[in-house]
Amino acid sequence: MNALEVHAVSKAFKSSGRVINAVCDANFTVCERETVGLLGMNGAGKSTVVKMCTGLLRPDEGSISVFGHDIVSERESAVAMLNVSPQETAVAFGLTVLENLMLVSEIYGADKRNAQRAAQDTAERLGLSDRLKDRAGKLSGGLMRRLSIGMAVITKPKLLFLDEPTLGLDVVARHELWRLIRELKKDTAVVLTTHYLEEAEALCERIVIMDGGKITAIGSGAELMERSGQSTFENAFLALTGKGDYIDGGNAHE
Q1: Cβ(173)–Cβ(5) under 8 Å?
Q2: In this structure, are residues 224 and 207 in contact, taking their beta carbons and an 8 Å threshold?
Q3: 149, 126 in Cβ contact below 8 A?
Q4: pLDDT for the residue 49
């Protein structure tokens, strides 16, 4: 069974008296324990897709299912199987690492004792055991993102959405999170949105490229390079979105 199935999904919004087609006839799947990247320029439709897949927006057309549960008609069952680590971290700066993790666990129904155990287990998994008593607001950017992901995985979702998980981090912190994401994907399906092309190429088995609300290509990094006739993934992305000149070292220039 697929972790996620998006079939013929469209979504439009009205703004200043005109209709904006944010997503048009999107189709893709995510297999169990697969990491799929969702790439596109700003305004391509990525955030709208994620919001529909997580039950925050209702599609105008088409269907979305999470492990066979329809996100609209079986919303409670579908949402129970997923979680999200948002770009804008949901961490409470005034609480400790332990308190942040316990809070999420308790919101999802755990009693205090089990919430503390789950928090400690999650912290150990994410390399935060020595930071449990630290105030979240005092953490570095990399540790803050790690805590944000911990708050998403403490519920043991079968499908995890990571929205720009390494945005603004330095190279060392970014690669530390890459190792964490590789560990998570051993038992969790992951949908990753990112503007770092090398991140998608390094972490994702398949990549969904969006442009203007439409999916323009799906495949591995190697497949997308072959399809576009380009020797680098950056140039393949530019070719498949029709954006700008190719980067020096590619096979073609506009």
Answers
A1: no
A2: yes
A3: yes
A4: 97
Q: Which two tokens stand for residue 14?
A: 């009205």
Asked if 159 and 71 count as a contact pair (C-beta separation under 8 A), the reply is no
pLDDT in tens, 189-242: 999 999 899 999 999 999 999 999 999 999 999 999 999 999 999 999 999 987
The residue type at 25: D
CB 104 within 8 A of CB 151: yes
Which pair of tokens denotes residue 2? 């697929």
C-beta atoms surrounding 24 within 10 Å: 17
Q: Which of 58, 74, 208 is nearest to 66 (CA)?
A: 74
- In sequence order, the 6+-apart residues with CB closer than 8 A to the CB of 247 are 232, 234, 235, 238
Give the number of other CB atoms < 10 A from CB of residue 244.
9
Place of tokens 């970014």: 174
- Average pLDDT of the chain is 91
Model pLDDT for residues 134-155, shown as the tens digit of each residue: 999 999 988 998 999 999 999 9
